[in-house]
TrEMBL record:
Organism: Dongia rigui
GO molecular function: dioxygenase activity
Database matches in InterPro entries: ChrR-like_cupin_dom (IPR025979), RmlC-like_jellyroll (IPR014710), RmlC_Cupin_sf (IPR011051)
Transmembrane regions: none
Keyword field: Dioxygenase, Oxidoreductase
Residues in ChrR-like cupin domain copies: 16-114
Protein known as: 2,4'-dihydroxyacetophenone dioxygenase family protein
Length: 158
C-alpha cells in the first residue's frame, strides 16, 4: 500500500460543520470525522459524535488515548465519572470500557488514538479491531460511496 507524503510541516482542517460530507457513519448512533491519519506512528485523530443515549461497543486500546469533550457529555459504563463539555480524558492502554453518550445531549469529542482499538464481547474475547489503516480504509470507502474526491484521504495522511 502506498501513501502520499506531504511536504508541509503543519496542516489545518478548517470549519468542520454538522453537514460536512466527510463524516463517516460507523453505526446508527456513532459517526466520526477524520482529521489526520498518522500512518508512520500508527495513530489517528478524529471527532467522534454519538447521538443522545448512543454507545460505542465495549473495547480497549493497545496504547494511550487522549480526548477533549467539545460538546455534550459521556461516560463509561465501567466507571462512575462523567466527561462533560470542556473535559480532558486520558485512557490508559488495556482498560476495557463502553462509551455511552448523555441521554439528552449526546456528545462530540476530539480523540487522538494510537495503536489499535480492540472490540470485545461480554467475556472479554476479541471480536474486532481498528487501527489507523482500517480507519483510513473505511474513510476511503466512504469517499468512494459518497462520490467524493479520493485525494481528500491523501491530504489527511501524515
Amino acid at each position: 500500500m502506498k501513501f502520499a507524503s506531504v511536504n508541509v510541516m503543519s496542516e489545518i482542517v478548517q470549519h468542520v460543520s454538522e453537514d460536512d460530507p466527510l463524516w463517516v457513519q460507523l453505526t446508527d448512533q456513532v459517526r466520526l470525522r477524520p482529521l489526520m491519519f498518522d500512518c508512520t506512528n500508527g495513530a489517528w485523530s478524529n471527532l467522534l459524535r454519538v447521538t443522545p443515549g448512543g454507545s460505542l461497543a465495549c473495547h480497549y486500546h493497545t496504547a494511550p488515548v487522549h480526548a477533549f469533550v467539545i460538546d455534550g457529555a459521556w461516560r463509561y459504563l465501567e466507571h462512575d465519572w462523567v466527561a462533560e463539555t470542556g473535559s480532558f480524558i486520558y485512557e490508559p492502554p488495556g482498560e476495557v470500557h463502553t462509551l455511552v453518550a448523555d441521554e439528552k445531549r449526546g456528545m462530540t469529542t476530539f480523540f487522538v488514538t494510537r495503536g489499535s482499538l480492540v472490540y470485545t464481547d461480554s467475556d472479554g474475547r476479541q471480536i474486532g479491531f481498528e487501527d489507523v489503516f482500517t480507519r483510513l480504509e473505511r474513510f476511503r470507502a466512504h469517499l468512494s460511496e459518497s462520490g467524493l474526491d479520493q485525494t481528500i484521504a491523501d491530504q489527511l495522511i501524515r
